[in-house]
Write a structure and sequence with these properties.
mainly alpha
Length: about 90
């Protein structure tokens, strides 16, 4: 690309960036048209309290399982390292 073409391209980018009105993306236009006829329902900011309790227990259970597996692996590797030769 020649220097003149690059200068023109830079000018076009600056001109486009300084535009007062920017057209929304195709996805934004699609969602606006869809929501005009069928608006989305309200979405709570936080989850229901009943779901939060169950998730916390499962995350603790997952942590216990992972730590237990790591401890078993450490014990197994230690046993294999200290096993007397045959």
């Amino acid at each position: 690309m020649s220097g003149k073409d690059e200068d023109e391209r830079e000018f076009d980018l600056r001109w486009a960036d300084s535009a007062e009105h920017k057209e929304p993306s195709a996805r934004a236009r699609m969602l606006a048209a869809r929501w005009k006829h069928d608006p989305p329902g309200p979405v709570p900011f936080r989850a229901d309290p009943e779901h939060v309790g169950r998730r916390r227990r499962s995350s603790w259970m997952s942590a216990v399982v992972v730590l237990g597996c790591m401890a078993a692996l450490i014990v197994l590797l230690g046993y294999l390292d200290f096993r007397p030769p045959h």
